Amino acid sequence: MVASAVILVTSLLIFITNKTVFIRRGIELVQSYDEVVRVLSFPKPEDFEYYREPLFKLPYYISYTVYNEKENKTLVSNDPFIPLILPVTQKPRIYFEKNYFSDGNLKILYYARNYKLVDLGDVKIIIAVYIDSDYFSKLFPVIPYVMIPALLFILIISFLISFSITRRTIQPVIRITSEAKSRSISDIDKALPVSKRDDEIDQLAKTFNELFVQIKKDFERERQFSSDVSHELKTPLSVISGQTNLLLRWGKENPEQLETSLNSIKAETKSMQAIIENLLKISRYESGRLKPEISSFKVSELFETLKKEFLSIENIEKTSPLTINCRINEEIILESDFDMLHQIFTAFISNSIKYAASEKGLEIELAAEKEEGKIVLSEADNGPGFKGDEVFKVFDRFYMGDQARTRELKNKSSGLGLSIAKTMSQALGAEIYASNKEEGGAKLTLIL
Questions:
Q1: In terms of pTM, does the model score above 0.90?
Q2: CA-CA distance, 179 to 192, in Å (whole number)?
Q3: Tens of pLDDT along 134-153?
């Protein structure tokens, strides 16, 4: 394809150059005709040979003839071989006659016009140039025979060089492709080979390596998630199945057993329903189907709403004493999703109530402040705080802490509250993390 393009461009260049030379020769013939007319316009002398000297100014390769057709007489000429039968033309034309000379053909580019002299009447002025003897005309037919072999040789050399360079360049890509095809999910995070050149191929390999690592992490996370879901749903299903068997055996005759089994089935069903609803909620946020609805509101409005809701719940359920304090250094206006932030802090406060509540009472502080152009919202309690590396696990799905793996606590929590909070914070473009206060107690922070 490249060779065809080069040959096409070369042929086009030769054609344009040949055409340009032909046009320039034609212009030169017309100018020579005008010069002959100018000389013939002088007062007529006794002998037409008088005109020869002025006509010497024409280029040496220009042939001219002034012919009187009425008297069939050549008045003046510098080439007796110019045919006098050439037709009159309005622009330069090519004339060819085979075997005109004893040793060859005649091929000329000529320009012929009639001109009226005062005494002799009409004469034919013929201006011509021999194409076969013209240097450029001889050169152009030879050019293709010289250039085409040279171009073919250059193209072959270029092809061999390009093939060698391409082969060396594409070899790393072939190696990367082969390595990538051989990957399975068990060794997908194994790094592809990278040279030390740090070129585009290396950048491609590094990008694939990063992608493979991320795929491995996502796969492991999804596998763990599936395992956790199976584990979390297995227990309530086992309880429901067991209680159903009890009902089938003794529940009909034992009202006390009937009520106990039905309450147990109801609790387990509620737990399963909460797990499924929370998983669907996480899925919707992660897939982008639920997007934040941005509005303008005060942080104090958010905190006061949360405070009223949880204090009213505490009064109804008569749980351990609960105190919620709000600390806002200055009034802060947020441009965010009120409902999402409400759900995030609902998860924060619920987590504190489940894990930090005691007979002595639970104190929760909701705080908001501005730091270096960011808005920091936090929820802290006076409970035991996070133990060990729990601060890195509390946002994992179904994580409830080692000390909380009791049936009583699992009936209160699905282990998805903080995981949902993290998913929502990502939808808001916020940062979320857990920590312990210096004086004791857990702290959950959201940075907008």
A1: no
A2: 7
A3: 545 555 565 666 666 777 77
